[in-house]
Amino acid sequence: MNNNTLWRRIRRALETARRTANLMAGMPDYENYVARQRRHNPNAPVMTKLQFQDYCSKRRCGSGGRCC
Question: Quick one: which H or E segment has residue 58?
């Protein structure tokens, strides 16, 4: 195994860990959202990553300052 292959595997593992942690915290994956929007609603505007995160937070916790 060469260095490039090793770094690719490490990068993939870290990306998987990041996505898993986000899903565990209730934050859906932005890349999946974009792909789904483009596939099912090609003419609809796609939220920016910041808008998507804000939308998910409000959806999960409501618009108030507390979630618990």
Answer: helix 49-61
Statement: residue 30 has pLDDT above 70:
yes
Cα–Cα distance list, 44 to 3, 24, 39, 47 (Å): 42, 28, 10, 10
Domain boundaries, the chain: 3-61
The answer to whether residue 39 scores a pLDDT higher than 80 is yes
Model pTM? Answer: 0.60
Measured CA to CA, the distance from residue 37 to residue 43 in angstroms comes to 9
CA dihedral 11, 12, 15, 16 (to 10 degrees): -150
Q: What is the pLDDT of residue 57?
A: 83
Rg of the chain, C-alpha, whole Å: 16
